Amino acid sequence: MPKRSTTCPLCEAMCGLTIETDGARVLSVRGDPDDPLSRGYLCPKGPALAALQDDPDRLRAPLRRVGDRFEPIGWDDALELAADGLHRVAERHGSDAVAVYVGNPTVHNLGASIFAPLLMRALRTKNKYSASSVDQLPHHVAAHLMFGHQFLLPVPDVDRAELFWVMGANPLASNGSLMSAPGMRGRLAAIRERGGRVVVFDPRRTETAVAASEHVFVRPGTDAWLLAATLKIALAEGRGLGALAPHTERLEVLRDAMAPFTVAEAAARTGVDASTIERLARELVRAERAVVYGRMGLSTQRFGGLCQWLIHAINLLTGNFDREGGAMFASPAFDAVHVPGGLGIGKGGFARWRSRVRGLPEANGELPVATLADEILTEGEGRVRALVTSAGNPVLSTPNGARLGRALETLEHMVSIDFYLNETTRHASVILPPPSPLERPHYDVAFHHLAVRNTAKLSDPVLTPPDGQLADHEIALALVERLERRRGALTLRRRATLAALRRLGPVGIVDLGLRLGPHGLRRGLGGLSAAALRRAPHGVDLGPLVPRMPGILRAWRHAIDLAPPPLVEDLARLRASAPEGELVLIGRRHLRSNNSWMHNLPKLVAGKSICTLLMNPADAEARGVAAGARVAVTSRVGAVEVEVELSDAMMPGVVSLPHGFGHDQPGTRLCVARAHAGVSINDLTDETLLDELTGNAALSGVPVEVRPR
Ligand SMILES: Nc1nc2c(c(=O)[nH]1)N[C@H]1C(S)=C(S)[C@@H](COP(=O)(O)OP(=O)(O)OC[C@H]3O[C@@H](n4cnc5c(=O)[nH]c(N)nc54)[C@H](O)[C@@H]3O)O[C@H]1N2
Ligand SMILES: Nc1nc2c(c(=O)[nH]1)N[C@H]1C(S)=C(S)[C@@H](COP(=O)(O)OP(=O)(O)OC[C@H]3O[C@@H](n4cnc5c(=O)[nH]c(N)nc54)[C@H](O)[C@@H]3O)O[C@H]1N2
Ligand code: SF4
Ligand SMILES: [Mo]
């Protein structure tokens, strides 16, 4: 039986897979021990790729809406229908009347990650949205403001760190984020085995907290206070900037900005003892190789931008930036930040324009998705009347998703590029389904920039897609061509460019990127190319992370800005903030779940439902809620009814629900998921709660009430 090597595209861990097929069907999926990054590690979602491949509900051909039903339609007719509607709306109401939302799987899909930006640009709209603004946007804004490029994101060098602060991340469930490090349990254990420490700051005692040396409960949304107090100690007692000093600016502004912050106030705001803050901050400042890492829980909160800035500043001022065991930049073989021409991935920008209805800032050319429904529902010039979604399920994944669902009902036209008829795509006029993950080539353009070790791997498709089915990049190109033809912009030259891109395809572009990259042509005959990687199907090891300063900055900013004005100014908002209320809601991830779209695969949803409300027993008692009871959870925007699970792993005053559930909506084609529907946390999250600086949704720390049913 043929065995193929590939990479799991479901999360950021990039696990190497060995897949056995009979040529048409998957027989087995195993972890690949020869993959230089994952070395055989695998989580339960990897093998579920076989079930995804076989899922009878996964769409293989386009659908068009006829009244309340969908019927099959040929590819050419579907593309014409899609382009006609988008063109009609843009002609009548201007190009900003067409919005686009691009979801998370895009960055895990080679073709989509390279070609979706082309489609976004071709729509010529200011109404561009993506899952970034319900996720990691504060990281990009802080990187842009401090380092000069939105994608200059340092990663914790976990394999050499002696002290690892994990804030608002649960890598034992999520398998790491903005930190590709498959097998985190082993990596964390190794830190402890070499005498180091792992400290987790989280309002829930998570799987990661249990595996850590120490866990600290932090009140949701208050981390910036703790970070500011820590930074102040680092400024006074840290190793300082050392050799990086000449490559930084505005240290004195940073020092002044931190002056008002105290450990006592941090303790009052965060709920962490002052003595604990002092002790941990001093340990951090004195440690030889230490790194602070803050993820989802720190970026999807009201002060996400501040948190990411303060973290960089702490890593810098403790002498742990761009240094082994600290926060380091990867050296990807395909370097999208430094590739000549920039691959269309700009260095980013911030607040150059604002959204029509709420005046929210643009970031990197996108607007916050928390305001998409406003732009659809609010009358006036520039109102959004058509939408393209690609690899996204914003009805379940963005704040006040129920309202967004109602807004989608009112659109004149909607095109969804997706292989499920789900809570979002059920509103589409036409659905264009790309092939499954195993039917496409793979190279991780994004996550090699964020990996804890430099490796490279290119994989050909494991299986052949059905005849005639267009891949994500072909769908994007087909739509671009049709839209440009309709508006008379398809010049001969443009046609030639699009034809060249089509011929090159995603793998051709990877080949170019590899040759131009740091491990390419300049290494001579042994340099990397697509052909060279094909000769090493398990991937090649390019070694541990290496210091990259100051070269990595040269093209963007001449120096690291330690105190960018928008961030310094935002401290006033932090100081003026008040606690959120008696009970606040946070999310959680589960190893068997992947955002909103793997719940139709029987093995992943088997057993007891994971969609329960976790609550501290004291909070339950105060509200007359018994273990296992059904409760009503209400917020400003909505209500859900769900089973409660009492757990002292929850900080008092905080409850938790996983996201991505709520599969009982009418008109979807998700037989299995419907039987395990659960409720959507985003029917409770509030579109008006934001990190107002970056526009990222504050999904964490939403005030709620819980009552017995
Ligand atoms: N199994 C699985 N893996 C996944 C995903 C999935 O859905 N399932 N999704 C993938 C995606 S898209 C991403 S972005 C990554 C995310 O990966 P992570 O960043 O690791 O995200 P989470 O697992 O949600 O962990 C966030 C943690 O922050 C805590 N938290 C919430 N609010 C606060 C706060 O205010 N302060 C602090 N200190 N902590 C807080 C939560 O309790 C939670 O434990 O995971 C990826 N991997
Ligand atoms: N309350 C709360 N909300 C959250 C989060 C949270 O922790 N709490 N997490 C947030 C985070 S980190 C993220 S990233 C977002 C995710 O938000 P989204 O990206 O909007 O949602 P996903 O659930 O990832 O849905 C992905 C969609 O893409 C489709 N799909 C899968 N693979 C492909 C492909 O290769 N091509 C195409 N065209 N389609 C594909 C799936 O069928 C599905 O419809 O959710 C966010 N929402
Ligand atoms: S951790 Fe699981 S989902 Fe993530 S890449 Fe590895 S096998 Fe896939
Ligand atoms: Mo995400």
Give average pLDDT, whole number: 96
Question: What is the distance, rounded to the nearest whole angstrom, between the alpha carbons of the first and last residues?
Answer: 55 Å
CATH class of the largest domain: Alpha Beta
Helical content (DSSP H or I, runs of 4+): 25-40%
Describe the main β-sheet briefly: 7 strands, mixed
Bound compounds:
ligand MGD, iron/sulfur cluster, molybdenum atom
Low-confidence stretches: none
Under the CATH scheme, which architecture of the largest domain would be assigned?
A: 3-Layer(aba) Sandwich
What amount of the residues lies in strands? 15-25%
Give me the number of helical elements: 24
Describe this structure in words.
The model has no long low-confidence stretch (mean pLDDT 96). The strands form nine sheets. The chain has a seven-stranded mixed beta sheet, covered by helices on one side. Strands 11-10-9-13 form a four-stranded parallel beta sheet. Strand 2 and strand 3 (26-31) form a beta hairpin. The protein starts with a strand and ends with a strand. By secondary structure, the protein is of the alpha/beta class. It has four domains: 3-54, Phosphorylase Kinase, domain 1; 63-125 and 336-442 and 454-543, Rossmann fold; 143-332, Dimethylsulfoxide Reductase, domain 2 (3-Layer(aba) Sandwich), CATH 3.40.228.10; 580-708, Barwin-like endoglucanases. The radius of gyration is 24 Å and the shape is globular. It has 24 helices and 29 strands. It is 32% helix and 17% strand. The structure holds ligand MGD (2 copies), iron/sulfur cluster and molybdenum atom. Residues 103-105, 109, 112, 131, 134-135, 296, 390-394, 397, 417-420, 422, 434, 472, 587, 595-597, 659-660, 681-682, 685, 699 line the site of one ligand MGD.
